[in-house]
Design brief:
The complex is a heterodimer of chains A (223) and B (231). Chain A has one domain. In chain A, 85% of the residues lie in helices and 0% in strands. Chain A contains 9 helices and no strands. Chain A is globular and about 55 Å long. Chain B has 231 residues and is of the alpha/beta class. Chain B is 35% helix and 26% strand. Chain B has 8 helices and 10 strands. Chain B has a 6-stranded mixed β-sheet, sandwiched between helices. Chain B has a 4-stranded antiparallel β-sheet with strand order 2-1-4-5, covered by helices on one side. The chains are: A mainly alpha (223), B alpha/beta (231). Chains A and B meet through α1 and α4 of A and α2 and α3 of B.
C-alpha cells in the first residue's frame, strides 16, 4: 500500500510535468546554455575542456536541480492541492519519496540530453568511462534530489522561496556534489585511483539523506 | 446527549499574532446530525473548519472527532474527516477520473474503476471523466471537488461554503450529499451564508460573529430568537 502511494505521487508528478512540458524544456535549455557558455569561456583547448568538464556538468545540474525542486512543489500550489493531499495521505513519507523520485526522473531526463551535448561541445570520449559516468550521475542525482525534495517542501509556502531554497540546499549537499564531481572526473578523464572512495561517499550520503527525508518530512510539512 | 459525539470542541481559540480569529469556542455535534455554521465574512467559520480538518492547529483549547483527539490522533482523523474547502484541492492537468483515483490511493483505499465512475455519475461528470480539470467550468470543478471528498466516505463531512459557484442542480447535489451522509450515520458541519438552505438541513445551529459563538442550539431556537440577534 505504501509502495502504491509512492508510485501514485511519482506517476502524478511525471504526468503533470509531461503534460505541461514547460519545466523540462526550460531546465534543458538553461543547462545547455551553461555548458555552451563555459565551452566558449575555456576556448578550444581540449585538455582544459576535459579537466573542467565534470565540474561544469555538475554546475549545470545544480542549477537544473534547484529549478526542478521548486517546480515539484509549485505544481502543488495551484488550488491548494498540497493541503488537500496532506489531509488525505495516510503515509506522508510516501509523498516525500514519490516527490524525490519524481525530481530524480526529471533530472535524469535532463542528464540524458546534457551528457551527449557535453561530449560534443567538449570533445569528450565517453566510450570507456560510460558505466562510471552513469553510476556517478545516478548516485549524485539521488542524493541531491533527496535533500531538494525535503527543502522544497520546507520553503514552498515562503515568499522568498526562490532565494532560500538554494541557500539551504547547497551547503548541505556539498558532500554529494564533491563525490559526484570527483567520480564524474574519473569517468571523463580516466584513472581509477580514488573512485571507490567517492562512490562509497555517494552511497553513504544517499542513504543518510533519503532516510532523514523519510523520517522528517511529516514534521517539515506540519502547520 | 449521550455516547461519543461526532465533534466536540472545548474552548478552542486561534490567534494570529494579536488577532483572534476564533475565541474560546465550545461546540458539540452528535453522530448522525447536521450542524449549520452561520455567520458573516470574517466570523471564524473557515478557521473553525480548518482546525477540525487539521489544516491548522488551535492556539488554545482542545477537541475531538468521534472520540479521537484533534491534536494527538491526526493520522486516524485523516481517514474519518472529509473537508470540502473553499479551494478545490484538484490537480488541473489531471483528468476528473485521475484526480479521484489519486486521492483514493493516497488515502489507502483501492482506486476501483466502478467506484470512481459511480461517484462521477453521482455528481453528473461521468461524460467528462477523461477530460482534464483545467477545461472545466468553476461549477464543474466544485462538483468534482465534492466527489473528491465523498469518494472517501468520511464519517464527518465539513463543508465550507459548498454552494459557491453551483447552479440550482449543483446546490441540490450538496443537499443530497448531506442527507445521504446523515442517513449513513455520518455527521455534517455545513458552513454557509445561505442560512435558509442550511437551516432546512440542520439539526442544530452555531452562529459565529467576530470569532465568538453568539448562539449554539436548536434550529427552532435560532428561528425564534431571530437571526439578526444572534449573528
Amino acid at each position: 500500500m505504501w509502495a502504491d502511494q509512492v508510485w501514485a505521487v511519482l506517476r502524478k508528478d511525471v504526468l503533470l510535468e509531461a503534460r505541461s512540458r514547460a519545466n523540462v524544456n526550460a531546465i534543458v535549455f538553461f543547462a545547455g546554455l551553461v555548458l555552451l557558455v563555459f565551452s566558449f569561456a575555456l576556448g578550444p583547448n581540449r585538455a582544459h575542456l576535459q579537466t573542467a568538464a565534470a565540474g561544469i556538468l555538475w554546475l549545470a545540474l545544480i542549477f537544473s536541480g534547484v529549478l526542478a525542486f521548486g517546480r515539484i512543489y509549485q505544481i502543488e500550489a495551484e488550488n491548494g492541492a498540497f493541503e488537500g493531499l496532506l489531509l488525505v495521505a495516510q503515509n506522508r513519507s510516501a509523498i516525500y519519496l514519490g516527490k524525490m523520485l519524481g525530481a530524480t526522473v526529471v533530472m535524469l531526463l535532463v542528464e540524458i540530453v546534457l551528457v551527449p551535448l557535453m561530449a560534443v561541445l567538449y570533445d569528450l570520449d565517453l566510450s570507456g568511462g560510460m558505466p562510471i559516468l552513469l553510476l556517478a550521475c545516478l548516485l549524485g542525482t539521488i542524493g541531491f534530489a533527496a535533500v531538494g525534495a525535503l527543502y522544497g517542501a520546507l520553503t514552498m509556502s515562503l515568499r522568498a522561496r526562490e532565494v532560500l531554497l538554494p541557500l539551504l540546499l547547497l551547503p548541505v549537499t556539498v558532500p554529494i556534489l564533491l563525490g559526484a564531481v570527483k567520480a564524474t572526473g574519473v569517468a571523463l578523464n580516466g584513472g581509477h585511483g580514488d573512485l571507490a572512495v567517492w562512490i562509497e561517499l555517494l552511497v553513504a550520503f544517499d542513504i543518510v539523506f533519503v532516510t532523514a527525508g523519510l523520517l522528517t518530512f511529516e514534521y517539515a510539512v506540519g502547520e | 446527549m449521550s455516547g461519543t459525539p461526532a465533534l466536540e470542541l472545548l474552548r478552542v481559540a486561534k490567534l494570529y499574532g494579536h488577532t483572534a480569529a476564533l475565541k474560546a469556542t465550545s461546540l458539540r455535534l452528535e453522530v448522525g446530525e447536521t450542524l449549520a455554521l452561520l455567520g458573516p465574512n470574517g466570523s471564524g467559520k473557515t478557521t473553525l473548519l480548518k482546525i477540525v480538518a487539521g489544516v491548522i492547529a488551535p492556539t488554545l483549547g482542545r477537541g475531538s472527532v468521534l472520540g479521537l483527539d484533534l491534536e494527538q490522533d491526526r493520522r486516524e482523523l485523516r481517514a474519518a474527516i472529509g473537508f470540502l474547502a473553499a479551494e478545490s484541492y484538484l490537480y488541473e492537468d489531471l483528468t476528473a477520473e485521475e484526480n479521484l483515483r489519486f486521492v483514493l490511493t493516497m488515502a489507502g483505499r483501492r482506486p476501483d474503476e466502478p467506484a470512481v465512475r459511480a461517484m462521477l455519475g453521482r455528481v453528473g461528470l461521468v461524460a467528462q471523466a477523461r477530460e482534464r480539470t483545467r477545461s472545466f467550468s468553476s461549477g464543474m470543478k466544485r462538483r468534482l471537488a465534492l466527489a473528491r471528498v465523498l469518494v472517501l466516505q468520511p464519517r464527518l463531512l465539513l463543508l465550507d461554503e459548498p454552494y459557491t459557484n453551483l447552479d440550482a442542480e449543483g446546490a441540490d447535489l450538496i443537499d443530497e450529499a448531506v442527507r445521504q451522509a446523515v442517513a449513513g450515520e455520518g455527521s455534517v458541519v455545513l458552513a454557509t451564508h445561505d442560512a435558509e438552505r442550511a437551516l432546512a438541513l440542520a439539526d442544530s445551529v452555531a452562529a459565529l460573529e467576530r470569532g465568538v459563538v453568539r448562539y449554539a442550539g436548536s434550529v427552532a431556537g435560532y428561528r425564534m430568537l431571530g437571526a439578526q440577534h444572534v449573528g
